[in-house]
């Protein structure tokens, strides 16, 4: 026995040492070094020229990668490149409009023989590394030398310069080695940027597109030259610029690119390429004229014929080389399409240094320019240049406007005929007739004269204005003048003439308007104005001043003669400017009250032969002396049942005995009569007349006589009040029918006809009912009854419409349709219809429900309760049990033992919800009731222990446990399958019984359940045996660790997605596709209870595992599932089966 203990100690020491070594090894592991990411570099020059040939097509997708990659390489390492100038290429490209280029006799595309597009060849390679196909980057081919041969022994330069419509091209080849070499000049004209694009490429243009070969004199092949060191050879060609097109925002000349390469043989076979260049490479020679200035000291932006203008231009060297080959500058002006030289040619200096400038000037007398010109073009140009690469900047020009005399337009006259003393508005306009003047810089001379008089009669008398521009900014902008006629000028026609003067005092011809087309001045006729109307007293002579009533522009009132044939006109007093009138009283008609008119004639002494003397009408307001006066009262109209009012003070006035106004509110107003009092009620409160119909259904009209009195005299007036007949639609008094509660499927009948009436029509109204549920309400026209039966629950409506021939009224009946009335249950006493409590709702117990009807409950004839147990964590309800109640026991209530043996055979579990899910009842009237809101109890507490029970409860508790144990043992004995779960439950029951029997008050039937204090002699041996077994297990583990350590540092285990349940294809197929379930997050597993300490020497059986999760379905565990999988995924499986 001591040897075993020693072995166990050694094993433990060995285990601790191994763990220490492993920990130390892991702590000193060297960190893994990371490779540095390569730095991306731009293309580096190989140190010599590189030449490539590209074959592509507009429809080729990969070409849209190759083409820009070649051009990007050219941008950094080609002509004008940012890194070097030693790469060039040529493109043979199929155009969408012209197809493949014509290239005999060289036939280079056939020579390249592409197997597909794009194909790019470096150094005329026939195959191999430098013969490439497909879209790719070409930097590496360039950097590795581009298949060029002995390229440092040769040099090639290209220069091109414009000559009219042609381009002069010089290609110079040089050899730097020993001996002599014969080479062939591969040369072609290309478009630096093609104006055409690749298909579906977002405006991607090809570059260096072949247009024409530069061949030998026989046009049979390339030029050949023999080179020796120090003796360069130059070959020249002249090509029309029109061979290429404008592209890339450049003109054709600027888009003209010459590309060349040197080959060690002719074009008939693959050769070595020894050098290459294009016309963008190397220094450029470019002389330009810029900044032409044309100035006139008299006017900054125009000239008059005879002015002297100054010309100045700058010659600038914009190239990369000094210019030393002579040439000159010529100034010119254009005469039509011809350039006429101004002065002589001014020579360029011997050297025009790079970036240098030189200024040249000239003067010019404009007298020789065309008189009718609107503008003249002046320019300067370079002549006699040699080697200039750009001709587009060798000529510059500028326009100078010609200041021409203005043209006067016909003036507008408003009005053309005026009386003496009135004004005429003259709107005068001019056409500047050039690009120099505007209306703002143009003034006018305006003159008038009597028609028929001589030229010496023109005068500016009466003319003013012209300072401001009217209608500025429009095509009608003009200056406005005023011609003021005088009262003493002769009547008749007056001529008008206008002429314009521009800023340089150039005068237009006179624009003359004669006779009646110009201005007509007429006599000013006397005028008669009735307003303001004077007031005169009835039957009394009254003098009225005519100041403001009669006037004449040419004469004063005292110089006029006024007369009238009216009997009310008494006379005219010119000294006082008054007329006298009398509106006499007439015994038959009384005073001619109100506004009365008198027609008068006014003679100003002019000759009116052939026409009437001027006349007009004067108005007078005749009032009766002291008597109140009514204005006409408006007829008033109201609807049946309507009302209205009218303030009367605005319609009545009063005067005193002298005709002076007296305030109207001093009058006393009264009602004299009402012609139809049965129609209208009339009342007068102060000056407010109120009226209303006697009821809602009368119509007609009445006349009301009113009287105004000032205490001395009175005046009467009448007002007519009309009642407009209005049809009244049929009406309905719903009363209790406004809201109804109806049971679904039950038929109800209501008398609707008795509720409808029409005060305007004796015939029965037409009634229509419209339910919100089709067919739920029907109206019988013969009986007047409405039959109602609804099938749809909830709030419904019935619209009842009553109508006659003219109008209708609609009324809504709100219907609440129910299937059953709500049953109210509560855990609080005397609340609702039933009070419900729950006893013994503990873990592992069966609960007891206690139910009592309250005093609020109807008299029920049937009662059924429905109970469920639900999992509180998931909300899943497992089973429903119905318990019909004996209504005869309603007085004492009901107690129900709630058992769910199929899902809770061993009592309630933690977080279970006991749910009263429904109550179905019927009362003594046949109405049905249903529980609308379930009642829940959450189970979380353990049952009270034995120590908390009284003696009677303890005895009952022990009896229940013993009975449960006996039943469970019988079930285990009868079970042929797996009994692990039942045995685990049996252990729990026996443990509970043991605890209860430990109570001193307990009397248990079996002695074997009491604690055994004895100790078996073999206990020590069993303990040692257990220690030996544990030691062997530890030794096996340590040996595994040691062998593992011999293999080096343990690799960190990597997560493998294939180990997930969702990757188990066999399980997925067996479970009917449970991958979605396996991918759900796992609920934490409930740990199994610890095993009790062994009290007997015999080895104990392993405790049955306790699994969490939902109850198994009736068919048992699904095929292929384990209980562990059921714990995690069982509820999802059940949900999917629903």
Could you please describe the fold and organization of this structure?
With about 1150 residues, this protein is mainly β. The protein folds into 9 domains: about 50-280, Immunoglobulins (Immunoglobulin-like), CATH 2.60.40.10; about 285-400, ntegrin, alpha v. Chain A, domain 3 (Immunoglobulin-like, Sandwich); about 405-520, Immunoglobulins (Immunoglobulin-like, Sandwich); about 525-625, Immunoglobulin-like; about 630-725, Immunoglobulins (Immunoglobulin-like), CATH 2.60.40; about 730-820, Sandwich (Immunoglobulin-like); about 820-945, Immunoglobulin-like; about 950-1010; and more. The chain is built from 10 helices and 69 strands. Mean pLDDT is about 85; it is low at about 1-10, about 20-40, about 1005-1025 and about 1045-1105. Helix 1 (about 1-25) packs parallel to helix 7 (about 1020-1045) and helix 5 runs antiparallel to helix 6. Strands 60, 64, 65, 67, 68 and 69 form a 6-stranded mixed β-sheet that branches. Strands 7, 8, 9, 11 and 12 form a 5-stranded antiparallel β-sheet that branches.
């Amino acid at each position: 026995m001591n040897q075993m203990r020693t072995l166990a100690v050694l094993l433990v020491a060995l285990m601790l040492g191994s763990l220490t070594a492993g920990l130390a090894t892991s702590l000193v592991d060297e960190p893994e070094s990371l490779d540095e990411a390569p730095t991306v570099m731009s293309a580096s020059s190989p140190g010599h020229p590189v030449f490539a040939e590209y074959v592509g097509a507009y429809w080729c997708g990969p070409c849209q990668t190759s083409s820009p990659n070649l051009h990007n390489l050219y941008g950094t390492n080609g002509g004008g490149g940012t890194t070097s100038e030693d790469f060039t290429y040529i493109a043979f490209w199929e155009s969408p409009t012209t197809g493949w280029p014509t290239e005999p006799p060289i036939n280079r595309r056939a020579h390249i023989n592409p197997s597909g597009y794009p194909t790019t060849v470096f150094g005329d390679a026939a195959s191999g590394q430098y013969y490439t196909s497909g879209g790719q980057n070409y930097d590496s081919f360039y950097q590795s030398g581009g298949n060029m041969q002995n390229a440092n022994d040769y040099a090639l330069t290209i220069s091109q310069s414009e000559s009219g419509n042609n381009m002069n091209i010089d290609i110079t080849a040089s050899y730097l080695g020993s001996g002599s070499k014969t080479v062939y000049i591969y040369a072609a004209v290309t478009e630096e940027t093609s104006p055409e694009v690749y298909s579906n490429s977002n405006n991607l243009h090809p570059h260096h597109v072949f247009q024409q070969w530069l061949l030998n004199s026989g046009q049979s092949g390339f030029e050949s030259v023999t080179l020796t060191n120090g003796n360069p050879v130059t070959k020249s060609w002249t090509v029309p610029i029109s061979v290429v097109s404008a592209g890339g925002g450049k003109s054709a000349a600027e888009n003209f690119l010459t590309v060349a390469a040197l080959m060690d043989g002719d074009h008939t076979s693959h050769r070595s390429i020894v050098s290459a260049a294009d016309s963008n490479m190397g220094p450029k020679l470019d002389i330009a004229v810029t900044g032409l200035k044309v100035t006139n000291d008299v006017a900054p932006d125009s000239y008059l014929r005879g002015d002297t203008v100054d010309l100045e231009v700058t010659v600038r060297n914009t190239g990369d080389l000094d210019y030393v080959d002579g040439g000159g500058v010529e100034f010119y002006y254009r005469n039509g399409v011809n350039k006429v030289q101004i002065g002589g040619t001014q020579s360029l200096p011997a050297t025009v240094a790079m970036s240098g400038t030189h200024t040249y000037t000239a003067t010019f007398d404009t007298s020789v320019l065309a008189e009718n010109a609107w503008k003249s073009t002046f320019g300067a140009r370079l002549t006699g240049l040699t080697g200039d690469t750009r001709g587009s900047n060798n000529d510059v020009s500028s326009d100078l406007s010609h200041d021409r005399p203005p043209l006067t337009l016909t003036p507008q006259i408003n009005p053309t005929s005026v009386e003496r003393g009135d004004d005429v508005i003259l709107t005068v306009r001019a056409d500047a007739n050039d690009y120099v003047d505007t209306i703002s810089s143009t003034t006018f001379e305006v003159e008038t004269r009597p028609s028929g008089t001589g030229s010496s009669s023109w005068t500016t008398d009466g003319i003013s204005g012209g300072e401001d521009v009217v209608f500025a900014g429009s095509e009608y902008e003009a200056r406005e003048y005023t011609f003021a006629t005088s009262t003493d000028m002769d009547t008749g026609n007056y001529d008008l003439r206008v002429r314009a003067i521009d800023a340089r005092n150039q005068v237009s011809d006179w624009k003359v308007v004669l006779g009646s087309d110009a201005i007509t001045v007429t006599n000013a006729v006397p005028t008669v104005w009735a307003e303001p109307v004077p007031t005169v007293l009835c039957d009394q002579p009254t003098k009225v001043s005519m100041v403001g009533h009669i006037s004449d522009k040419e004469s004063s009132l005292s110089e006029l003669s006024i007369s009238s044939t009216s009997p009310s006109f008494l006379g005219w007093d010119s000294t006082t400017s008054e007329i006298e009138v009398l509106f006499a009283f007439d015994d038959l008609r009384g005073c001619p009250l109100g506004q009365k008119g008198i027609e008068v004639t006014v003679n100003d002494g002019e000759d009116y032969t052939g026409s009437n003397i001027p006349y007009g009408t004067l108005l007078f307001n005749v009032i009766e002396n002291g008597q109140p006066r009514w204005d006409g009262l408006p007829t008033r109209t109201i609807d049946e049942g309507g009302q209205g009012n009218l303030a009367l003070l605005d319609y009545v006035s009063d005067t005193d005995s002298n005709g002076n106004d007296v305030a109207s509110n001093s009058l006393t107003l009264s009602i004299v009569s009402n012609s139809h009092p049965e129609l209208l009620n009339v009342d007068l409160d102060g000056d407010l007349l109120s009226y209303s119909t006697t009821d809602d259904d009368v119509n007609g009209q009445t006349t009301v006589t009113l009287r105004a009195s000032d205490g001395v005299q009175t005046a009467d007036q009448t007002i007519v009040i009309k009642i407009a007949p209005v049809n009244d639609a049929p009406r309905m008094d719903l009363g209790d029918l406004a809201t109804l509660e109806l049971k679904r499927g039950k038929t109800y009948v209501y008398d609707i006809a008795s509720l409808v009436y029409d005060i305007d029509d004796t015939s029965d109204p037409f009634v229509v009912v419209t339910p919100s549920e089709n067919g739920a309400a029907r109206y019988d026209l013969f009986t007047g009854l409405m039959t109602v039966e609804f099938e749809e629950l909830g709030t419904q409506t019935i619209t009842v419409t009553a109508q006659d021939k003219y109008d209708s009224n609609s009324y809504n009946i709100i219907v609440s349709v129910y299937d059953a009335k709500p049953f109210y249950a509560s855990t609080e006493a005397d609340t609702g219809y039933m009070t419900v409590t729950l006893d013994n709702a503990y873990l592992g117990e069966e609960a007891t429900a206690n139910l009592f009807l309250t005093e609020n409950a109807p008299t029920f004839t049937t009662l059924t309760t429905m109970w469920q147990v639900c999992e509180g964590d998931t909300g899943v309800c497992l089973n429903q049990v119905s318990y019909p109640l004996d209504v005869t026991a309603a007085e004492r209530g009901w107690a129900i033992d709630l058992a769910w043996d199929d899902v809770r055979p061993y009592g309630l579990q933690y977080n279970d919800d006991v749910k009263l899910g429904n109550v179905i009842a019927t009362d003594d009237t046949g109405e049905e009731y249903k529980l609308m809101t379930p009642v829940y109890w959450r189970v979380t507490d353990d049952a009270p222990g034995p120590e908390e029970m009284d003696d009677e409860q303890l005895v009952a508790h022990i009896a229940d446990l013993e009975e449960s144990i006996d039943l469970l043992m019988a079930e285990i004995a009868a079970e042929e399958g797996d009994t692990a779960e039942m045995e685990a439950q049996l252990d729990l029951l026996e443990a509970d019984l043991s605890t209860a029997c430990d109570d001193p008050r307990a009397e248990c039937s079996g002695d074997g359940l009491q604690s055994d204090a004895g100790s078996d002699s073999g206990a020590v041996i069993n303990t040692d045996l257990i220690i030996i077994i544990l030691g062997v297990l530890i030794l096996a583990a340590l040996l595994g660790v040691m062998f593992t350590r011999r293999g080096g540092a343990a690799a960190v285990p990597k997560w493998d997605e294939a180990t997930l349940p969702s990757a188990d294809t066999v399980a997925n197929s067996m479970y009917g596709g449970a991958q979605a379930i396996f991918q759900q997050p796992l609920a934490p597993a409930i740990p199994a209870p610890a095993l009790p300490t062994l009290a007997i020497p015999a080895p104990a059986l392993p405790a049955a595992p306790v699994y969490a999760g939902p109850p198994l379905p009736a068919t048992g565990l699904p095929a292929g599932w384990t209980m562990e999988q059921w714990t995690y995924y069982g509820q999802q499986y059940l949900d999917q089966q629903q």
